Structure formats: C-alpha cells, structure tokens
Amino acid sequence: MSFMIREAITQNVIGDSATEFKDTVEDAISRGDEHLLPGLGVFLEKWWQNSSASEQEAFTEKLSQAFKN
C-alpha cells in the first residue's frame, strides 16, 4: 500500500516548481493534519535520495538539534 501512496503523491506533484513545492510544504505544516504526513515523508525520501552525503549530514545535524530538549 505504501507504494501506492508514493506513486499517487509523485503523480500529483510532477512538474511543480520550487515555489509550488514550498507552498505545498508550508501548507501541510500549517494545517497540522496528520493525514498530510505521508506526503511530507515522500518529499523527504525523494530529497534524501537526491542529496549528497554532506547535505544529508547537515540535515541530520539540524534535525538532531531541533529535537533536543
């Protein structure tokens, strides 16, 4: 089933501009609806797969800092 979700989300955003992606992410976050989390997860997965090791390291460092108490 998760592959169906990935494919559906991918099909919905093919061809979107950087501005449209930013708007989509900001809208999903501002709504706070948990049903939007899988879409953000698909975005993260695609970003991760297309990022360099140094970009991934910077991201995980920032994420680690964001979740510190």
TrEMBL record:
Record flagged with keyword Membrane: no
Q: What induces it?
A: Expressed only in the forespore compartment of sporulating cells.
Give yes or no: UniProt keyword Membrane.
no
Q: Which InterPro entries match?
A: SspI
The alphabetized list of GO BP terms reads:
asexual sporulation; sporulation resulting in formation of a cellular spore
Per UniProt, subcellular location reads as:
Spore core
Source taxon at top rank: Bacteria
Its keywords, alphabetically, are: Sporulation
Main location per the UniProt record: other
Protein known as: Small, acid-soluble spore protein I
State the organism of origin: Ureibacillus manganicus DSM 26584
Chain's gene name: sspI
